[in-house]
User: Fold this.
Amino acid sequence: MSAGRLLIVEGPEGAGKTTQIARLAERLASADIPHLVVREPGGTPTGEQIRTLLLDPAGDMVPAAETLLFLASRAELVERVIRPALSQGRLVIADRFFLSTYAYQIAGRGLSEESIRAANAFAVGGLRPDLTLLFIHRAAEGLARADRRGKRDRMERADDAFHERVAAAFERFASAEWQRGHPEAGPIATIDASGTEDAVYHAMIGTLATWWPETFPVARGSDL
Assistant:
């Protein structure tokens, strides 16, 4: 069986990642393409416990502890779930991965890029995404979407300046210069997430059809 692929979906709060991942999973299921959807933090028993700690609105922790918990969850997810699924030839779709750590903990919290990149490399043991879909969206609009979902979690409750730094970091990640300096992140394709749900979905599928046409064939005249 051929090796699977690791597809990451990234972006700031309220960019619509989870909705689009669900639609993508439906498409893959209808085409009988083996796949698995995972989320960060979480995805394993230990990871889900860590998720509860990290996102508890009443919780409080220093940035270094926050970062190490995210990476501990990632290490569990990679070894217990992602690598086995890839070895089975499945397409693994992850809701957040490297870029979220770089955006939230380096740009948002102001932690050392050198230290976090080294810790992340240790956590994943050399695993590199095959493609990241980076949803670009304005921070204020994304937070308004998040508010419509209900009460903000601990990460969402950070101040506006924090979320502006995070959104600006995601935009930097789209540049060829940044990507050349961060090969561990793998190839990155940007998606304009400011449109309607259908518009974003079509942009996502169109991008995937360009990268992996054998998995996402688009018939002439198709609505994707």
Observations:
- The mean pLDDT is 91.
- The radius of gyration is 17 Å.
